[in-house]
Amino acid sequence: MLASCTEKVFDLDDDDINEIKYQELPSGVKFFIDSNIDKIVRKNGAEYIEICYSTDPSIVFTCGRSGSSNNWISEVSSNYHHFFVDGVHYRMRGNKGHPFILDKGYLYFGDLHIYKDDYMKRPYYKIEVKIER
């Protein structure tokens, strides 16, 4: 991912992240997680794949990590997660879990250690994303 020198990047501050329980997630977010849990959990030896999803199909939402390594440990320790919402660039300090789900102005994401048998018991997080349009 390349950004131009004049591109405005909006930082999402770690101090604004709130921990919530699975039961507190919006229904669209829970539905996505429930429907995709097999893709979300990392199986032994499988490549780490970052998953980004918007519950609003009219929003173009993509994400990635800074750094060039293909090593999962290096990637989760990277400096930033980058998010593009309708072309607007946001970033958040690295080492967060996935999937990253955008829903009604909030970005939801999971714990680093989500497994199929306990994903409903793991912590989740949300942070407000002031969508620039």
What attributes does this structure have?
14% helix; alpha+beta; single chain; four-stranded mixed β-sheet; 133 residues; five-stranded mixed β-sheet; 2 helices
Please, what is the average pLDDT? Answer: 84
**Helical residue percent band:** 10-25%
Number of domains: 1
Mass-distribution shape = globular
Fold and architecture overview:
- This protein has one domain (31-128).
- The strands form 2 sheets. A 5-stranded mixed beta sheet has the order 2-9-8-7-3, with helices on one face.
- The protein starts with 8 loop residues before the first strand and ends in a 5-residue tail after the last strand.
- It has 133 residues and is α+β, with helices and mostly antiparallel strands.
- It contains 2 helices and 9 strands.
SSE layout and pairing:
Elements: E1 9-12, E2 18-20, H1 27-40, E3 52-54, E4 61-65, H2 72-76, E5 80-85, E6 88-93, E7 100-103, E8 106-110, E9 124-128
In short:
With 133 residues, the protein is α+β, with helices and mostly antiparallel strands. It has helices spanning 27-40, 72-76, and strands spanning 9-12, 18-20, 52-54, 61-65, 80-85, 88-93, 100-103, 106-110, 124-128. The protein has two helices and nine strands, in the order E-E-H-E-E-H-E-E-E-E-E.
